[in-house]
Amino acid sequence: MLVRLRKGLVPDQIETILALSRELGYAARFLDADRLLLELEGTGQPQDRSLLEDLAGVAEVLSTGDARELHQTSPGASPTEVRAGEARFGAGKVSLIAGPCAVEDEQALLHIARGVRARGATLLRGGAYKPRTSPYSFQGLGRPALEMLARVRAEVGIGVVTEVLDTRDVEAVAEVADMIQIGARSMASSPLLLEVGRTMKPVLLKRGFGATVREFLMAAEFILSTGNEQVVLCERGVRSFDDCTRNLLDVGAVAFLARETHLPVIVDPSHSAGRSELVRAVARAGMAAGADGLIIEVHPRPEETHSDGQQAISLNELGRIRRDAEAIANMDEATFVIPADQTSTPEPAL
Ligand code: PEP
Ligand code: MN
C-alpha cells in the first residue's frame, strides 16, 4: 500500500501516521527525501485503508491492487492544469511558449519578447545555460542572461521559461523563471529532478531523445514525488535512423501520454524538425495528436545566433502557427490562452 501525505505536516502528525501503520502491522518506509510518499508493507485488513484515510495528514491511500503512480490518470479525477505566468496548460487549455534558443543580446531579447507576446505567446523561452553536445560550443551566458531575462520579463510583462542544468543553479534560476525547464539531456538526472521539484515552481520536463515513454514518465514521477504537481511534459523528438529531420517527433507518444497521464503534454516542433521550413507542419501534427501547447524557437536574424539558428522561425511564421494552434484547439473544444490584454482573432488555419 502507498500512502501520500499532505505537504507541510509537523513531526507529530507524521508520527501519528507511522504509529497507526505499525499498530495495523505494517512495516513503513518513506520513498522520498521529503517524506510525502510512504510505503506500507504487510498483509493488513480491508478496513486499514479507510482508517488511514481518516487521518488529517493523509492526502490519499493507494492500495497495492490499484497502486497508481502519481502521474497516472484515475477514473473520475480531473486532469491537472499547470499555471505559469499567464500561460495555462492542460484541462482544456492550450498555451504557446516562444523565444530564442539562447539568451544572447538584451535588445534582441526585448524585441523577440514583444513580438512573440503580440502573436499570442504567454511565456518567453530562452536559455541562460545551454546543454551542448560539444564543450567547445557556446554554453550560454549564465547569470548575466538570467538578469536579462528578469529585466525583459518586467519590461514586457511576459512570464519566462528557462533551463537549468546544474543543481547548484536551481535557486538562481527559480528566482527569475515562472517555469523551470529540464532539458532532454538532463531528463534522467534524479538529483536535478528532485531539486527542481522542491522549488514548487512549474516544471517543463523534456523527453530525452533516447528515453522510452516509461522512462520519461518515471522522470516526471521524481518531480511529482516532491509534492510538486505542476509538471508539463514535452515531446521534442527522439533519435531515429533517418536525418531528414533533426529528431523524429513521436506523435504516438503524445496521443498516449494525453490518455495515460493527468499531466499536460506539449510539443517542441523546433528541436524535432530542426529546420525552420518544417516547424509549422510539425507543430500542426503535434497539436492534432492532442498537445496542450507548443514551445517554439523564434529569431528574426537566425544567422546571428550561436545556437540552433537553422530551426529558428520568424515572428510572422509564429503568427501563422498560433492561428493553426488556436484552430486545432477549438476543434478539440479546448481554449487557446492569450495574453490578458489581447483579444482573440481566430482566422482560418490555412
Ligand atoms: C532547448 O530547448 O533549447 C533544448 C536544448 O532542448 P532539448 O533539451 O529538447 O534538446
Ligand atoms: Mn535550442
Mean pLDDT: 94
**Stretches where pLDDT falls below 50 for ≥5 residues?**
none
- Number of helical segments with 4 or more residues: 11
- Subunit organisation of the chains: single chain
Largest sheet: 9 strands, parallel
- N-to-C series of helices and strands: EHEEHEEEEHEHEHEHEHEHEHHEHE
The portion of residues assigned to helices is: 25-40%
List keywords for this structure.
single chain; 350 residues; alpha/beta; nine-stranded parallel beta sheet; four-stranded antiparallel beta sheet; 11 helices; 34% helix; binds phosphoenolpyruvate; binds manganese (II) ion
Summarize the structure.
The chain has 350 residues and is of the alpha/beta class. Helix content is 34%, strand content 18%. Strands 7, 8, 9, 10, 11, 12, 13, 14 and 15 form a 9-stranded parallel sheet that branches. A 4-stranded antiparallel sheet has the order 2-3-1-4.
Topology record:
Blueprint: E1 2-5, H1 11-23, E2 27-30, E3 37-41, H2 48-53, E4 58-62, E5 82-84, E6 87-89, E7 93-99, H3 106-118, E8 123-125, H4 143-156, E9 159-163, H5 170-176, E10 179-182, H6 190-198, E11 203-206, H7 213-224, E12 231-235, H8 251-260, E13 265-267, H9 269-273, H10 276-288, E14 293-297, H11 315-331, E15 335-336
Parallel strand pairs: 7-8, 7-14, 7-15, 8-9, 9-10, 10-11, 11-12, 12-13
Antiparallel strand pairs: 1-3, 1-4, 2-3, 5-6
Helix pairs in contact: 3-4, 6-7, 10-11
Bound molecules: phosphoenolpyruvate and manganese (II) ion.
